[in-house]
Amino acid sequence: MSSSLKKAAGGAPRLFERYVPVDHARVSFDAGFWKSWSETVRDVTIPTQHMRLDEEGFLEVLDFDKPAGPLARPIQPSGLSMQHFFDSDFGKWIEAASYTLKNNPNPDVEAKIDAIVEKLEHGQMADGYLNSWFIRREPEKRWTNLRDLHEMYSMGHLLEGAVAYFQATGKRRFLDVMIRAVDHIIDTFGAEPGKLRGYDAHEEIELALVKLYRVTGDPRHLKLATYFVDERGRMPSYYDEEARRRGEDPADYVYKTYAYSQAHTPVREQTQVVGHAVRAMYLFSAMADLAYENDDPTLKSACDKLFDNLTGRQLYVTGGLGPSASNEGFTREFDLPNETAYAETCAAVALGFWSHRMAQIDLDGKFTDALETVLFNGALSGISRDGEHYFYENVLESHGQNRRWKWHYCPCCPTNIARFITSLGQYFYSAKADEVAVHLYGANTAELDVAGRFLRLKQDTAYPWEGDVRLSVGLSVPASLTFRLRIPGWCRTARISVNGQEIDFSASVERGYAAITREWKDGDEIRLSFDMPVDRLYAHPAVGEDAHRVAFKRGPVVYCVEETDIGTEPQRLRIARDAALEPRFDAGLLGGAVVLEGEALEADAGDWNGTLYRSAPPSLKPKAFKAIPYHLWANRAEGAMQVWLTEK
Amino acid sequence: MSSSLKKAAGGAPRLFERYVPVDHARVSFDAGFWKSWSETVRDVTIPTQHMRLDEEGFLEVLDFDKPAGPLARPIQPSGLSMQHFFDSDFGKWIEAASYTLKNNPNPDVEAKIDAIVEKLEHGQMADGYLNSWFIRREPEKRWTNLRDLHEMYSMGHLLEGAVAYFQATGKRRFLDVMIRAVDHIIDTFGAEPGKLRGYDAHEEIELALVKLYRVTGDPRHLKLATYFVDERGRMPSYYDEEARRRGEDPADYVYKTYAYSQAHTPVREQTQVVGHAVRAMYLFSAMADLAYENDDPTLKSACDKLFDNLTGRQLYVTGGLGPSASNEGFTREFDLPNETAYAETCAAVALGFWSHRMAQIDLDGKFTDALETVLFNGALSGISRDGEHYFYENVLESHGQNRRWKWHYCPCCPTNIARFITSLGQYFYSAKADEVAVHLYGANTAELDVAGRFLRLKQDTAYPWEGDVRLSVGLSVPASLTFRLRIPGWCRTARISVNGQEIDFSASVERGYAAITREWKDGDEIRLSFDMPVDRLYAHPAVGEDAHRVAFKRGPVVYCVEETDIGTEPQRLRIARDAALEPRFDAGLLGGAVVLEGEALEADAGDWNGTLYRSAPPSLKPKAFKAIPYHLWANRAEGAMQVWLTEK
Question: Name one Pfam family in it (chains A, B) (predicted).
Fold first, then answer.
């Protein structure tokens, strides 16, 4: 079955650009930065995650024929036996695993997925309803609390898993189970008389439905997604009505405001990013999808305002987002505390999803800059170099208390970073008519269909450690194509040559992408050279936590200082404004990485004599200084870490 | 009944100094700084607190004959109908109110206290047990969970209330109720065979028992306090044993470590202040009391180590303590975040209790410095200038989200700051043989008995706004006495004159107190003059949050900048190291206070054009600057506040 997306691409004129991302399975990381990360996730992360899901009891929830008592091994630390949304976790694991299957068939993984699918099919209710908690524990309460209990969120993740598994293997069984579940939702929810006018407080089903629509071409699937997004935030709130039906006072809602779920006001009227960060990113991803599919400029314009609000006022320099643990999300603008940063891995991954979608309808480098920022920093920091330890919170400063864990009672992040990396290829290239957009740099080999031709692209590069990229063109017959090459937002000096001839591309740069149109033939070679000095970054004065502080970034990679490298807490360092910082490739550092070295000053604690406050500022002494990529922190000895360093 | 303390003072030689604080009722604040605070607390705070306790249902818990259903008005925001430790709240209110009664008899307040006492007496179980929760709801569960349920903590506060009410009015009824309750505890707990070897996880009963002992002279009361302190932290833990008796796994303890309650190791082996801050301060207060009463050098030495650890590594510049909300207490050393500071009002008040007790056994200015710091800063900030709004957390930085509240579902702080202020007189002077120690400065008139003589002391001073104090001596017959006059730790230049004659006192200064011994006669006058420039304070380099920041203190008063005074968030200010700061008395500011004025720089947000990060640091423009005493913040318009200001 070909996707409806491809069929629609040649249709009537559309409001937006409609780039089509290359399929992830057609991009191979056979060398360079992403090679070992991809292999680690495929060979370590995917199998160990299944092992954890199994041993921690997450799969046990699918034993529909057993009494739904406590799990054999209750989830710690809450003593929790089961959560309403456990289905989402193996849904995401199936999705992540599926992305590896096309190029690396794995009967063992397939068997594990099939076993889950069989249990799901067995447990699914006759009318299509599917949620392991409610079916086993309180079927009479299904659909009575969309505000808190995540039924559609869970189904959405199963649906994404089913689509990915179908695309990887051609097996329909899981997809059919989920289509029946979606049919049930269509029968139950909608603006039509007799249906419940509800929508899930944790967004996810919306973007999953667009994925389904792109596979089935069934307009009812797109219509349901559209309904959920349009209905959101309509007043009086469905959640009030629903709470009253449960005999509860809506005023007792624990999060106090539906802004927690971006349901305080219709989505097209939202201008500030609020509430739970992952929910927000999933919603905005769906809004971008629907702008794309429905040619809806009002959704695009809402997304634009929200994106500018996020990146201009609420985004960590690492691409982390959502500073607060209490709502797992946003607080006030410019509130970006470092040590207590929540900055959930899932939220950074989902910002990648949203940014990528935005770039398909509006080829603007600001979107791919955000994608690249999360990719090399705030999302990648969520997984350890060994591929089996994780962060939920991605703080920008620590005194050593933040350690990676093997598993979590709410393990949403591990499978999210896994599916991001196993599907990474799709983020590199998009095509439209006779155009190819190159969004990301990094060694890979890709196959594309453009303007009816088969195009092979190969990037040779040490990116992100170096800014030189050789892009080789493979074509069986010559073709007239436009390459739109992203000039990264962090780059102040770029050079491009074609077949050894430097070209002046500056006039062709439009919103961060340089355009080169010509008749291309097999063996042509584009060389891109992005100057990659160490950047010193300062935060807007309203970010009180970063006052008098500097962050280091080189290319797309944000740096941090770890105690283990300098033998003292980085909080004691003072960096002179003119301090020289030398980048050096350290092959021995966790698989190889560029580190920054130089001279700092250290605030001396030796002359404080037991006092905590005094009238003389600390004295300073020279101190050798080393910074490593932020995404590599907490992979070695325990200790303090700091991204925003104090300036002298 | 005279206190056993006075009787014992002339006994056998003791290890420690044993100063006796002057009774609070013998110190009158008839002018100056504390006059209006005392009057506000007596005339506004005490009556409104009773009103809140009544209207919020706290007193309803004493209706022992009614079924123990939900309260008429459940406590918000938890929907809680009743807590196990509500008795402590009216216990503390009775104590606070009682301190006002001796000099200001008030039949209405007495009637309200008598009404509570009557209900308590009526509800008390035949064996003496007294706790409204357990008696009404689950009497069979009494004494089954000392780790979590605060039974002795609540009884301790009732006991302190009973002692204070007896001392104020001579009425024995409440005291007798509580003596019966203590008899019951003595029958139930102890090291003797057949008794439970338990102790309450929330300390309080220990210091209350010493107060009771000082009234009754009954050695069993002192012995019980001693048992509780000696037993604490003995392994294997009583809390493990008790949890198993309840059928629970001790490993499921929500706070994970008994360090939360200072019960992880015997108290004499503790060297770092850990866990819940109020609990720690109440324990250490009891340890100081028992060192005093039992001549126990091991407890004194433990207190010394803990005091130095607290003040050298864990105390906010305001005297606030316990940075973390999650355990209402301590984390790691030097962890002093400003915006998320918990720094509970109760903890600062209780540090006042402890410091004061330490000074009675060891006349060292470091103890009275700490007392004075909390008094003018981190404790006083817990109550509004109007006397009926409160802070639980006393942050050192805010973006305007911290507002004072009228009442709280856990209203421990309001009554704590109330009892601190209504008994404030006791902290000013102590006597021992022919010595008088003057600990605090501030306009007052006091009556003391020293060396068998009646001594009247009067301080005329605008302290803390000015550093000049005139101390007038009133004596019916001349007396040879030593005055030990505290030279505040913040003071670098002090002058003292007697009857107009400047004296050289430097050789007499011992640990922060200058000694003047002579034959004093009626009308003698000591003048103290403490230079009071504006101090710039810097924090130890290990306090990362305060790097590159400066705090202003003048005399004992810590300053802050409020947005309402400068029209911008103080987080945007940069203070030049040589910026001149002029103190000025502002009679219109909340009853009159010295403010600091000068020129700062403001980080300019005007040229950031929607970017959040950039490679150029913020530009700076001049900005008039004003700071007010920290204890006065959040009494006017909503807005941001900062104690630690960024230096240029």
Answer: Glyco_hydro127M
B619 located within any domain: yes
In a domain? residue A153: yes
List the 434-473 stretch of A: residues with Cβ below 8 A of B. none
Lowest-pLDDT range, A7-21, B158-172, B233-247? A7-21
| Residue B433 shares a structural domain with residue B331 | no
Is residue A71 one of the residues assigned to a domain?
yes
Element (H, E) at B370: helix B365-373
| Closest residue by Cα to residue B228 from B271, B266, B259 | B266
Q: Could you identify the residue written with the tokens 């700490």?
A: B370
Q: Are residues A212 and A294 in the same domain?
A: no
The C-alpha atoms of residue A375 and residue A486 are separated, in whole angstroms, by 16
CATH number at residue A512: 2.60.40.1180
Cβ neighbors of A492 (< 8 A, separation 6 or more) are A531
Whether residue B538 and residue A618 make contact (CB cut-off 8 A), yes or no, is yes
Tell me whether A370 touches chain B (CB under 8 Å): no
To the query of whether residue B412 is one of the catalytic residues in this protein, the response is yes
Active site residue A192: no
Question: Coil, helix or strand for B53?
Answer: helix
pTM for this structure? 0.89
Which has the closest alpha carbon to B442: B375, B503, B396? Answer: B375
Beta carbons within 8 Å of B429's beta carbon, 6+ residues apart: B21, B22, B27, B436, B437, B438, B439, B446, B448, B457
A6 touches chain B (CB under 8 A): no
Whether A16 and A364 have beta carbons less than 8 Å apart is answered as: no
- Amino acid, single-letter form, for residue A242: E
Q: Are residues B545 and B488 in the same domain?
A: no
Q: CB–CB of B612 and A647 under 8 A?
A: no
Instruction: Give pLDDT tens digits for B559-602.
Output: 999 999 999 999 999 999 998 899 999 999 999 999 999 999 99
Under DSSP, is residue A531 helix (H, G, I), strand (E, B) or coil? coil
| Partner-chain contact A538 B618, CB within 8 Å | yes
Tell me the chain B residues in contact with residue A313 when contact means C-beta distances shorter than 8 Å. Answer: 612
- Tell me how far the alpha carbon of residue A302 is from its chain's centroid: 20
Paired strand residues for B281: none
Q: CA-CA distance, B333 to B544, in Å (whole number)?
A: 11
Radius of gyration of chain B (CA): 25
Please answer whether residues A318 and A373 qualify as being in contact, where contact means their C-beta atoms are separated by less than 8 angstroms.
yes
Q: Where are the beta strands (DSSP E) in B429-532?
A: 429-432, 435-438, 444-450, 453-461, 468-475, 479-486, 494-498, 501-503, 513-520, 525-530
The total domain count for chain A is: 4
d(CA A408, CA A418): 15
Chain B residues within 8 A of A311 when measuring between CB atoms: 612
Kindly report the backbone phi and psi dihedral angles of residue A441, in degrees, each rounded to the nearest multiple of 5, phi listed first.
-115, 150
Q: A647 — contact with chain B (CB < 8 Å)?
A: yes
Q: Which residues of B touch A575 (CB under 8 A)?
A: none
Instruction: For this complex, say whether ipTM is above 0.90.
Output: yes
Contacts of B535 in chain A (CB under 8 A): 615
Yes or no: say if B40 and B387 are a contact pair by the CB < 8 Å rule.
yes
d(CA B265, CA A118): 54
CA distance B416 to B394: 14
Coil, strand, or helix at residue A420?
helix
pLDDT at B68 over 80: no
pLDDT in tens, A92-115: 999 999 999 999 999 999 999 999
B375: DSSP letter: I
Query: Do B320 and B423 belong together in one domain?
Result: yes
Is B22 inside a domain boundary? Answer: no
Answer yes or no: do A642 and A514 share one domain.
no
Same-domain status, B499 and B590? no
CA distances from A225 to A230, A302, A545 (A): 9, 17, 40
